[in-house]
Amino acid sequence: MRVATFSIAGERRVGLVDAEGETIAPFDLSVEAAKGGILGLIERNGALPRTLSPLPLSSVELEAPIPHPRRNIFCVGKNYYEHAHEFARSGFDSSAAAGAIPKDPIIFSKVPESVVATHSKVLIDTKVSSAIDYEAELAVIIGKEGRGISKEDALDHVWGYTIVNDVTARDLQGKYSQWLIGKSQDTFCPMGPWAVTKDEFDLETAGIRCFVNGDMRQNSKISLLIFDIPTIISTLSQGLTLKPGDIIATGTPAGVGIGFNPPKYLKAGDVVRVEIDGIGALENRFSEWAQ
Known about the structure:
By secondary structure, the chain is mainly beta. The chain has two domains: 2-63; 73-288, Fumarylacetoacetate hydrolase, domain 2 (Alpha-Beta Complex). It contains six helices and 19 strands. The protein has helices at 31-34, 39-42, 81-90, 170-175, 180-183, 229-236; strands spanning 2-8, 11-17, 23-26, 55-56, 61-63, 73-77, 106-110, 115-116, 122-124, 132-133, 136-142, 158-165, 168-169, 189-197, 207-212, 215-221, 247-249, 271-276, 280-288. The longest helix is centred in the N-terminal third of the chain and has 10 residues, at 81-90. The model has no long low-confidence stretch (mean pLDDT 94). Belongs to the FAH family. Keywords: Hydrolase, Metal-binding.
């Protein structure tokens, strides 16, 4: 099923999106339960509430599936072969000395406050960075708590999937040994447009694409990840308890802005669209921060 967090008449709700993407049927959740977005469903352990009469999707405002995650978003760097090479060549990769292809998953995070919805503005603060880049990514949403999870059991802990644009200030990423500052600027984690449950998403066949102003920049398959999703979940859970609602961005394919010569950085007015087969499209316009 496709589940969206949305607002209508100033109230946050959670609903079931129909197959054509034309209507949304609100779940019969209390206002309090809907505050966390789809967390209100995840925490019910599969016991779904009834749905109410459907509304036209065009009549509501979509929010990020989890508008404010409880913890930082876990992210995996350099997780497609061609992207690992383009990033190592870019001069911004503080891990390049260890080789272009990582031996183990590179994990970093983005703060919860960086999350925005599809069609929300992503803000460029030119006083802080002049090298803003896009990264199309599949995000995993954890549904069951676990620690020391084996690869064989990892997918049992997945609730579903959504789309993330891991927007990055490349100059800040290159300046600091850790990536958090360059990855966690305000509005730098567009997420959505909704989430799909794991039973409706095919990890083996799904394609991932990114367009900037209609120009395709990234085009790959989720199956081409260097470290697959079971490996990522197992790695993260060694000594760290994963909790329901945790979000893991799994890495981006080749074709990011720094992969071009000269780099193709984003500017105010640019529109970035990320598509993943079986989920949908996440689209955001970039705007200059109002000083």
